[in-house]
Design brief:
With about 260 residues, the protein is α/β, with parallel strands linked by helices. The protein folds into 2 domains: about 5-90, 2-Layer Sandwich (Nucleotidyltransferase, domain 5); about 95-250, Nucleotidyltransferase, domain 5, CATH 3.30.420. The chain has helices at about 40-50, 70-85, 110-125, 160-165, 190-215, 230, 245-255; strands at about 5-10, 15-20, 25-30, 65, 90, 130-135, 135-145, 150-155, 220-225, 240. Strands 3-2-1-4-5 form a 5-stranded mixed beta sheet, with helices on both faces. Helix 1 (about 40-50) packs across helix 2 (about 70-85) and helix 3 crosses helix 7 (about 245-255).
Amino acid sequence: MADNLLALDVGNTSVAGGYFVGGGLEFHFSLSSDAARTADEYGVQLRQMVAWGGVDVAAAVPSVLCSVVPPLTSRLAAALERYFGVAPVVVGDDYGALGIEVRYDNVAEVGPDRVVNALATRELYGAPAVAVDFGTATTFDVVAADGAYVGGVIAPGVVISAQTLVAGAARLGAVDFTMPPRVVGRNTDEALRAGIVLGAARAADGIIEAIWEERGERGVLVATGGLAGVVAPVMKTAPRVDAELTLKGLALAFERMGGTR
């Protein structure tokens, strides 16, 4: 593991970042994904975030990134090389170096964040396993008993589902994504929160049970993503929560793809 490493997971709505020191995640942060932002703007903001974490930005910092937003991939790669002194390792659609077999009909179709999640789940928690990521979409990624990534499920994300609900009902306002103290809400806010959080939890439970039934094996279940800490505690399938699973997977990918400090 590199002594120092900057990892970026570029999603449709946000960029999750983490800084590793001696193999451990020292701190993490989040930026908005903005197609209008230039490489220089990203570079300056990343330097500010890393400096805020106490890192000497005068020194070269190795980095790794995965991205599901093609226009931002090259832009952030340029920002990392220009402002941190080293070209980043980019996890793309060639996963041979990661040491995990990808049994997808078209490997280029699977997002690198999903493969990275599968890799981290297998290496940190074992196999067979399912990783559920509560992000822009809610994704379920399956690792077979032999350690291969065998595919998964993509469902609407919690936030998108909630925004659709609120946008379609004039009397419903913005909602806080936390589970209320009771299922039966005594006001509109409680009713919305219970419906959104518990609805997401039960939907996830149902998909996971279907995966286990189809696969004929259960194994470990890990929840990650921004809302994992809210949804997972009310899931009947009781997943382990690792909010930084993707960043940890990126650190593993960095080493396996020949990254050096």
